[in-house]
Amino acid sequence: MEPFLRKRLTFLSFFWDKIWPAGAPDDSMPRFPDAGTDAEPEPPAAEPRSPPARAQLFRALYDFTARCAAELSVRRGDRLYALKEDGHYIFARRLSGPPSAGLVPVAYVAKATPETLSDQPWYFSGISRTEAQQLLLSPANAPGAFLVRPSESSHGDYSLSVRAQAKVRHYRISTAADGGLYLQKGRLFSSLEELLTYYKANWKLIQNPLLQPCVPQQPPRQDEWERPHSEFTLRRRLGEGYFGEVWEGVWRGSVPVAVKVIRSADMKLADLAKEIQTLKSLRHERLIRLHAVCSTGEPVYIVTELMRKGNLQAFLGSPEGQALSPPLLLSCARQVAEGMSYLEERRIVHRDLAARNVLVGDDLACKVADFGLARLLKDDIYSPSSGSKIPVKWTAPEAANYRIFSQKSDVWSFGVLLYEVFSYGQCPYEGMSNHETLQQIMRGYRLPRPAACPAEVYLLMLECWQDSPEERPAFAVLQEKLGAICSCLHPALM
């Protein structure tokens, strides 16, 4: 009624002002803007939010579940005593619930004030006017959502921000000389809670109902594997391959790891996130275990368990590898087949299976690595037209000539890996160029049987090198046959 009369009968404005006093500025009374306008902006904050300080009291803003023994699980509202800052984490002791300490991401906590104000669902400390508007206009909040925050322009005062349809109204809550709080002079309250209770019941005085506290915006869900680069120290370069450099490193100063440093110039980084999701979903004792990734910023790190004896190709050429008996060589091959059988079940194509991409542990445990990463190499690098870049000597003819990769092209590569194992790391088709190798294969040439290779294993190699992909055995069959040969040669290895 008031806006209608004021607009239609403007000559009675003096009379209307007597009945409905116009809103005063923020520092005295709440501003009552017209429907088409917003309140006057408050000046921006003078200083940004400061990082957590030592021995600081914090409050958990969101639930957080620990993902390792070093982290601390907290629930929203838990009070924490921060002992120190550790990169993107605080090391804190929980004051509520069972006593315990650990790392909590800083995105999940906020500084707590000594009074209980910080525990109120409508109180948001340390946010700006702009941030308040973004929160209240988010899909999680409806008209009538409100919050109280410290005033940016008047130290010791507060601001009440209320969503009104597609706009947000801001009202100054001032502090009187005796410590009372007021929106309008003459209406003093002893606490913010008492003030809000009054205006919830008498919302017409500020022309906006206060229906429900603002719903806080959840931070982006922290990926189980995503870690900052700062957590890793690179110590010794182990080698270089199609996918970048491999380093021996340390995670958080204590956990030994292998770090693959991806060259962004060589990789299709747009597909990296999808491929990393695939890596995270794979769990098998014959696959290299993923510890973490650093995919935000460059370079990209893929962090895995560290296998002390390095890759299988280099290990076979070492004095220790040269001393392996045929049954132990067969055990290595069988472990690779087991890992590839797991990938086969999940329809994952490796594309670059070779002894250089199998890693060896202290107990002669062999694990397949780099599965699927060949998909991320740029086409002009990993293609037949680029000459030596494509591993032609390990690649099935249909993949080398027409880029038709499948589980059966991986089986062809496994046959070449068997040759590497029983020739103690010798390069296949030695003395031939890639072009000559492809020509000879298309004419029917196959690698000869290495001296240490049992006849039964060489027959499996030839099966892997069938011209027709459909005639090549599945990895599950190869694993079974290798197991049977292994049990005959050396039952103790099974």
UniProtKB/TrEMBL annotation:
Keywords: ATP-binding, Cytoplasm, Kinase, Nucleotide-binding, Phosphoprotein, SH2 domain, SH3 domain, Transferase, Tyrosine-protein kinase. Residues 27-51 are annotated as: Disordered. Residues 122-214 form the SH2 domain. Its main location: cytoplasm. The keyword Cytoplasm applies. Gene3D superfamilies: SH2 domain (3.30.505.10), SH3 Domains (2.30.30.40), Transferase(Phosphotransferase) domain 1 (1.10.510.10). It is found in: Cytoplasm. It catalyses: L-tyrosyl-[protein] + ATP = O-phospho-L-tyrosyl-[protein] + ADP + H(+). SUPFAM superfamilies: Protein kinase-like (PK-like), SH2 domain, SH3-domain. The keyword Glycoprotein does not apply. Residues 53-114 form the SH3 domain. ATP binds at residue 260. Residues 42-51 have a biased composition (Pro residues). GO terms for cellular component: cytoplasm; plasma membrane. GO terms for biological process: cell differentiation; cell surface receptor protein tyrosine kinase signaling pathway; cellular response to nutrient levels; negative regulation of TORC1 signaling; positive regulation of TORC1 signaling; proteasome-mediated ubiquitin-dependent protein catabolic process; protein deubiquitination; TORC1 signaling. PROSITE patterns: PROTEIN_KINASE_ATP (PS00107), PROTEIN_KINASE_DOM (PS50011), PROTEIN_KINASE_TYR (PS00109), SH2 (PS50001), SH3 (PS50002). Residues 232-493 form the Protein kinase domain. It comes from the Eukaryota. One of its GO terms (molecular function) is ATP binding. Belongs to the protein kinase superfamily. Tyr protein kinase family. Non-receptor tyrosine-protein kinase which phosphorylates DOK1 on tyrosine residues. Also phosphorylates KHDRBS1/SAM68 and VIM on tyrosine residues. Phosphorylation of KHDRBS1 is EGF-dependent. Phosphorylates OTUB1, promoting deubiquitination of RPTOR. Interacts (via the SH2 and SH3 domains) with DOK1. Interacts with KHDRBS1/SAM68 and VIM. This is Tyrosine-protein kinase.
